[in-house]
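Justification of computing resources. Each target in the renewal requires a structure prediction run like the one illustrated here; the chain below, 72 residues long, is used simply to show the kind of job we budget for.
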Amino acid sequence: MAQLTVKQYDQLESAIRDGRRISVTHRHQDLMVIPVRLVLRNRREAIEARHPTTGDPVVIWIDEADAIEVVR
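Resulting structure tokens:
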């Protein structure tokens, strides 16, 4: 996934604002996280998130994700 569509950005921003979980698929593994913010690091977009159970911080590089979906 090189970049998100406008609709996907809107859904991601809504999930950040409302504290909803997102599902990220990366190398055939699914990860559920709570996104905290969308940032630009070294010219790459990343989602700063936290693990819903442990609260540990997680950084997800958008260009490395195969799929990102907001869980409803």
